[in-house]
């Protein structure tokens, strides 16, 4: 069993990297939205191990209002609520993009969005989707 320090969501990722990044909506009187599906975080760790390099996450959890503000789909896999946790990560392209995509596939992420300039979107949806 791995014992994590409180600031870590998993061995390589801190909550601060994964929680909602909005400045005003959530976290005003408490914590930022950070409900994230554990299985998705496990797959992110597998990806990290496959890549063997630090990964930067541009966006993972978004509180519902922040998700709407940034133009996310109403049922975006980034949307974070207790009953429907986040299962998506936008992985910044800090290394070869094809390598990131390969690692995402190998880690078992079913949803992969490759048509973005600065990041690769990966999510743990139940069925395969590519865009
Ligand atoms: Zn927020």
Describe this structure in words.
By secondary structure, this protein is of the alpha+beta class. Helices cover 27% and strands 18% of the residues. It contains four helices and seven strands; from the N terminus they run ββααβαβαβββ. The strands form two sheets. Strands 3-4-6-5-7 form a five-stranded mixed beta sheet, covered by helices on one side. Strands 1-2 form a two-stranded antiparallel ribbon. A hairpin with a 5-residue loop joins β5 and β6 (119-123). The mean pLDDT is 94. The structure holds zinc ion (ZN).
Q: Give me the count of strands.
A: 7
Helix percentage range: 25-40%
**Approximate strand percentage:** 15-25%
What name is given to the CATH topology? Muramoyl-pentapeptide Carboxypeptidase, domain 2
Largest sheet composition: 5 strands, mixed
What's the CATH C level?
Alpha Beta
| Count of DSSP-assigned helices | 4
Count of the separate structural domains: 1
Q: Per CATH, which architecture?
A: 2-Layer Sandwich
**Residue windows where pLDDT falls under 50 for at least 5 positions:** none
The neighbouring-strand order within the major sheet is 3-4-6-5-7
Bound molecules: zinc ion
Structural class: alpha+beta
Order of helices and strands: EEHHEHEHEEE
From the N-terminal CA to the C-terminal CA, the straight-line distance is 37 Å
Mean pLDDT: 94
Shape assignment: globular
């Amino acid at each position: 069993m791995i014992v994590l320090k409180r600031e870590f969501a998993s061995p390589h990722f801190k909550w601060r990297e994964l929680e909602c990044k909005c400045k005003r909506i959530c976290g005003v009187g408490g914590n930022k939205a950070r409900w994230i599906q554990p299985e998705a975080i496990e797959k992110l760790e597998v990806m990290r191990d496959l890549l063997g390099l630090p990964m930067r996450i541009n966006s993972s959890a978004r509180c519902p209002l922040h998700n709407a503000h940034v133009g996310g789909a109403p049922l975006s896999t980034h949307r974070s609520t207790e009953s429907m946790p986040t299962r998506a990560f936008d992985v910044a392209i800090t290394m070869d993009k094809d390598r990131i995509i390969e690692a995402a596939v190998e880690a078992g992420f079913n949803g992969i969005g490759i048509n973005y300039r600065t990041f690769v979107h990966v999510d743990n949806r139940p069925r395969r989707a590519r865009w």
